[in-house]
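As a warm-up, study this chain.
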Amino acid sequence: MARRGRYRGQQRPAAAGPRRDAANAADSELLDALGLLRQRRAPYVGPLAAIVADVLDRFPLAPHGPIVEIGAGTGHLREWLPAPVRGRVVHTDPSPAALRDLQRRAPEARIALAPAAGLGFADSACAGALGLCVFDAVHAAGGADAAVAELARVLQPGARFVHFLDMATLLEAPLRKLDADGLVPIPNVFGDPSDQEWPLDIVLFQRDWLTGLLALALRSGHPLATTFGLYFGAFLAEPFDAKGAGDLFTAVAANGELRQALASQLASGCQVALQQGYPALAARPFHSGKHLAQVLDTTFTACGAFQIELSEIVTSAAWSPASNQGTSRYQSLCLGHERRSADFPRRLLTESARARLASGAVPGDQTLREAGVFAFVARRI
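Now compare it with the structure written out below.
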């Protein structure tokens, strides 16, 4: 099990021609995406590693046998693991390109080419299992039940599966569910998404109400229907394309000018509609991160082979001297939602940081970096 060449799931020769070109393009896209994630995580490596160490200290892995990581990618989680755990991990992933990059970064790492539903270990061979931002991808691909069954097969009785989510969950699965329920999402443009324990990143409208509002806006010459026609059209289209709609959602959510325009035009559009007797805006909050929490809770409970021990957001903070004048005094990353400000916001993620601020013991040149991660732990019965 020490190296990929002796692993029964070892890499096969790459396909030739168009299939190989498509595979190379997919590998390049994957590595680019993982590279961007690495950049976003870089300022928060200290708090993220502290969260991983805290969870593994409270819920330790069994002392004997290999630990398998599913969906290891290029090794982000490996870099945060305490050294005694890191040395026991076999990193698995279905992408040869990702594993090659992981091996380049950590030549001593043990790797194996394998999907989450076919890990290749013997029954009850593993002392623990780990994952970072992988189970939402497994679920989106329809493989959640198979992956949990495989974890139940390879884990020793009493061994734990520990999953961390530090970035926003993949949107396609929750968007499909919302569409089936007749709901249309927009990014939360009405407040700070991070102003709650679970980032409130999405606001929902009833499809029929929104359709009527857009028709009224179009008749009235209001810009809402034209400026955001492409966006709303993607969510109102039949059949519904969750991938395309999700890309548009992400584009609007990431653009400050578009978010501001959407908030302004929704407010003025609703005011025009009210004057013409249309029902008032009735928006519902939605936390996309909670979607994965529900998936994990439901899937592991239904399997019948696990006891859930933890399912909550875990936080950590680190103080450091400001590197130069003008640097933000505050930065935080909670389930993919980042805040940066010249001063400390009203709501902090960690009790220790709040207590230090309240005591007045914070020098003027200190920067606070906080991280919030959804941690899930299930023990093999």
